[in-house]
Amino acid sequence: MDGDGDMGVVRRIRPQSRPTRRLPAAEKATTSWPAPTEVSRRRGSIGARIAAVVAALAIVAAGVVIATNSGGSGSPTKAVGAKPPAAPATSVPTSSDPAEQARELADFFRAQGR
Asked: Any idea what DSSP says for residue 73?
C-alpha cells in the first residue's frame, strides 16, 4: 500500500500487554494457570509496600509535629513591656523662598535624625 489512495496510511496498533501464553500440547485446559487478577497482584514487592507505608507515616508524623508546635513557646502574642515614648508631632516646614525652604528642611531632617 502506497498511502496515496482514499484510505491513507494504515498502521497496525500493537497491544501494550504481554503476549498471550500458548497452551502446551500436553495440557488440555488452563485450570492450573493463575487468574489474571492474581498475576497483576504479584507485581508489587513487599519491600516497596513497606517503604510506602513508612513514608506515609513519616509525612503524617511531620504534619502532627508541625501542627502541635505552631503555637509557639507559650508566650502571649502581644508583648507586654515598656512602650517607647511618643514622638511629638512635628510638621514639615514650607516656605515660598526655595533657599529658605532648603535650610528649614535641612534643620528638620537633622532634628529627625537625633
From this structure: S
